[in-house]
Design a protein that fits this description.
Layout lengths: L8 E4 L6 H14 L5 E5 L5 H14 L4 E6 L2 H10 L4 E5 L8 E8 L3 E2 L2 H14 L12 E3 L4 H8 L10 E6 L5 H9 L4 E6 L21 H10 L3 E5 L6 E4 L8 H15 L4 E4 L5 H9 L3 E4 L4 H11 L3 E4 L3 E4 L5 E2 L3 H13 L3 H11 L6 E3 L4 H12 L5 E3 L4 E4 L3 E7 L6 E7 L3 H16 L1
Parallel strand pairs: 2-3, 2-4, 3-7, 8-9, 8-10, 12-13, 12-14
Antiparallel strand pairs: 1-5, 4-5, 5-6, 10-11, 14-15, 15-16, 17-21, 18-19, 19-20, 20-21
Helix pairs in contact: 1-2, 1-4, 8-9, 13-14
Length: about 450
């Protein structure tokens, strides 16, 4: 089925994903996870409540009790799944996809991800066959529980709120689900929030919230400068990612935030392990080692990062795409914990975000991720490797290809979720070299 992807479910509504498929998925999910209740939540998209209702009906028809947590962010489903120690969780969300899309993210007990090689293919097969038989004679019950207090207490546990000084923060919820959580946190923090695009609105009047796209950053950047804020935060629709802007309104590449958060968590957990993706690595490795930690490289993608974190008992995992994972959050990704930690650090040190990162960005300038639509990804990669073969690069195949040429390196990989080839380039302290090599690689890929 078209809506079943490598890590989750995503498709155009109603031709690729609809209420019938959602109902069948509920029944299939019930047969896949262990015994016990299932948490269900949904994002702000207009068709999300109906899809969630169909999922719930499928679960109940299989005899499962359901805890309906209503409108929420993806991490709230993760939280309630591990906090309540239930069988699993289903989040209805399309995150940053186009407005006519929707999808689902699935986890089993302990908020462990269900992806292609951990049960998602079995669920897909059951949904396709649609051979569920009679409804259970012992139908499940629904509990509607929209209380966020335990989740808010958990988030506040990562920081020392009483020791923080007042900061002014621009918060751009993108008309997604983050606004309500910001309001609840604000009541417990000595912070002034400048709220923009704050109200949940499934029509997305200000565009689909995806701050990773440069064209979607202006509203946050302008508000930071206009209000003289200490920094800005913008979220995608289901707020499993957050994106940071410094006091000048400059967007901060997620790569540098990984090293910053790693160092901060290692201060609290000396000698711990940190997992990172292979796209951009030099700054992260150096910052982790300087903080006394152990950097470990993992294949890109939440399922791989979470699996490696569990295996290594890592305190933190970070991807340059603004996914940040925390051991105390059941190794799951959160879009709320990162900015709280940054706010705490700025508050305690009185050092601005720009000043924290200026030296790091100069030491390891990077291109940011550049996406290319190519007819034959393998041929494009082979062409690039042939071009640089004479320079004897050190090649790794952890995820796509990573080529280390001493003073600069690049990673080139096919997307796991889209028909794209993704390029990242970094250098050791030479921004012009990084830009030149980025141009050279871009030309090769597009030939």
């Amino acid at each position: 089925m078209k809506c079943f992807k490598a890590y989750d479910i995503r498709g155009r509504v109603p031709d690729e994903l609809n209420e019938d498929i959602a109902y069948r998925l509920g029944r299939a999910f019930a047969r896949t996870v262990g015994t016990g209740a299932v948490v269900v939540g949904f994002d702000i998209r207009r068709d999300s409540p109906a899809l969630a209702k169909s999922v719930i009906r499928g679960l109940i028809d299989e005899g499962r009790d359901v805890i309906d947590i209503g409108l929420c962010g993806t991490e709230e489903v993760y939280f309630h799944t591990f906090h309540r120690q239930v069988a699993g969780g289903i989040m209805v969300t399309a995150s940053h996809n186009p407005i006519d899309y929707n999808g689902m993210k699935l986890v089993r007990e302990g908020a462990r991800p269900i992806s292609g090689d951990t049960g998602l293919r079995d669920i897909e097969s059951m949904v396709e066959r649609n051979e569920f038989g009679p409804i259970s004679t012992a139908c499940g019950k629904i509990t509607h529980n929209h209380d966020k207090s335990a989740y808010i207490r958990h988030l506040l546990g990562y920081i020392d709120a009483e020791a923080m000084r007042p900061l002014k923060i621009v918060a751009n919820a993108g008309n997604g689900a983050a606004g309500g959580v910001i309001d609840l946190l604000a009541a417990n923090l000595p912070l002034e929030f400048i709220r923009i695009h704050h109200e949940p609105d499934g029509s997305f009047p200000n565009g689909i919230p995806n701050p990773l796209l440069p064209e979607n950053r202006a509203a946050t950047a302008d508000a930071v400068r206009r209000h003289g804020a200490d920094f800005g935060v913008a979220w995608d629709g289901d707020f499993d990612r957050c994106f940071l802007f410094d006091a000048q309104g400059e967007f901060i590449e997620g790569y540098y935030i990984v090293g910053l958060l790693a160092a901060q968590l290692l201060h609290k957990h000396p000698g711990a392990k940190v997992i990172h993706d292979p796209r951009l690595i030099w700054n992260t490795i150096e910052m982790v080692r300087l903080a006394g930690g152990v950097p470990i490289e993992s294949k890109t993608g939440h399922a791989f990062i979470k699996e490696r974190m569990r295996a290594e008992n890592a305190v933190y995992g970070g991807e340059m795409s603004a996914h940040h994972y925390f051991r105390e959050f059941a190794y799951c990704d959160s879009g709320m914990i990162p900015w709280l930690l940054i706010a705490e650090r700025i508050s305690k040190t009185a050092v601005s975000l720009a000043d924290m990162l200026a030296e790091r960005m100069a030491a390891y300038p990077c291109s940011g991720e550049i996406n290319f639509v190519v007819e034959d990804a393998r041929a494009a990669v082979a062409k690039v490797l042939e071009h640089f073969a004479g320079q004897n690069p050190s090649i790794e195949h952890i995820d796509g290809i990573s080529a280390d040429l001493g003073v600069w390196r690049f990673n080139l990989r096919s997307s796991n979720t889209e028909p794209l080839l993704r390029l990242n380039v970094e250098s050791r302290g030479d921004a012009e070299l990084m830009r030149a090599k980025t141009r050279e690689l871009s030309a090769l890929i597009q030939q």
